[in-house]
Amino acid sequence: MKIIRPISLLLLIVLEWNALPQIEAAEPSRAERPNIVFIMADDLGYADLGCYGQQLIQTPNIDKLAMEGIRFRQAYAGSTVCAPSRCCLMTGLHNGHGRVRDNLPHGVFLKPSDITVARVLKNAGYRTGGVGKWSLGNAGTDGRATRQGFDTWFGYLNQDDAHFYYPPFLDDDEGRLVLPDNPRTKKQYSHDLLTERALKFIRDSHQPDSKSPAPFFLYAAYTVPHYASPKEDETEYSTPSDEPYRAKDWDQRSKNYAAMIARLDKDVGRLVSVIDELGLKEKTLIIFTSDNGTYGPAPERFKSPGPFRGFKRDMYEGGIRVPLIARWPGKVPANRTSDEMIAFWDMLPTFAELANVTAPGNLDGRSFTDALFGKPQQSPHSFLYWDYGHTRGMFLQAVRMGDWKGIRNGQGTKLELYNLVTDISESNNVSDRHPEIVKKIEQILAEQMVQSPDYPIAPPSPQKK
What's the gap between Cα 263 and its chain centre? Predict the structure, then answer.
C-alpha cells in the first residue's frame, strides 16, 4: 500500500482547489447593471477562512461563495486600521490623499465635497443601504452615512461605539434605535440586528413586478470578529454563544473568536440564500473581504495572518493583505483564483463602470473589471501606497511596486525592502543590495503623502545617504 506523507492542510487546499475544473463566464454587456452587495468583516485575518487555508475554524458558506466565484490572493485593504481603510473604500483615494487618515483624532469626517461609492451609485439610480460600522462621520455631522449617499444606514456611526456588541442604541438613519438596559441584560447582540436589517433591505429592494427594476447597493460592514471593549467581555471577544466550539479543549478567548467567525459565516450564508431565493443570483455581484489584517493579540492557535508577517497596525503583509472573494454567476468565472494586485480604492471606479456611469476624476483607484471577469488587467497599478500613524507619533509608510515591497517604520528610519515573490514572509531585508529600487520607492513615498490640514505630518523626503 502506498503511504502518503502528511503535508500541510494549506497546501492540500491549494492543490485540491486548483485541480477542480475552471469554469468560464461571459463578460457582461454595459447594459447589465448588477445589484452590488459588499460584505466586509472587521479585523478578519487573511487565513481565517477555510478557502484561504484555515484549519481549525469552519467557514462553509464563505468557502462556497469562493467556489462559485473568484478568490483574489493579492487583494489589499485601504489601510492597516479601520477608519482610513473605510475612507479609501468609499472615496477611491489611498491614505496619502484621503480625508480620514487615521482612527484618531476624532472629528475628522467626510465633508459634502467628498465623493463616495454610495453617492456615485445613488446618482446612477441605485437604491443604497448600509449596515454596520461607518467610522466616517458621527451623528449630526455631514460625514454621517445618510448624508454621504446612503438612502438608509443602520448600525454604528461612531468608531468607538462599535467596540460594544451589546450597545444601548444603534444609529438608524437620522435617528436611533434605543435598546434599553442592553449592556446589562445582553439581550440584543448587534451583529444579529445588523443581519436582520440587511436581509430586510434586500427584500425591500426586490421589485419582481417592475419592468425595469432599480438595482441596489448593500454595504454590510460587519463588526465581527473585532475585539470588544474589556468593559463588555474580559476575553475581548464578545459572543452570545461559543458554539460550535464549546467542547474544544481551547481557552475561552479562542472559543469566542472562532464562534464569532462561525456566526459571520452563517449570516453570509443567509444573505446569499435570500439573494438566490429571490431569483437575483445572476443579477448580483457579491464581494466579501476584511477591512485590514487580524488584531495582534488574537488567539495564536489559528495562525490568522497565514504565511505573512505582521498584524493590524503593521505595514507588513499581515496588516494590509486581506481575503477578497467575488461571485456573480454567469459573469464572474467560478472556481477561479486571481493574483492580480487590487486595493480598496479600486472599488469605486469598478462599481461605477458596472453601473455604466463615469467615475470621478483624480482617483487613485482604477477599475479591476478585467480581473473580476477572469482576465489579465489591461491597466494594472504601477504601485500601491499606504501610510499610518499621522496622530500616533510614529509615521509608517509602505509601497508595493511589482514584486517589491518597501516599508518605512517611522520617519527618518531606513527603508526596508522585500521581494514578495521569493520572501512572502518579509523576513529578508535586501535594501542594501538594490539601491535603485530603494530610490524609486523613496520617491513614491515622498510624493504620495499630500499634506492635510487635519493631520500634522509633513510629507517625508527621500532619505539622504
Answer: 18
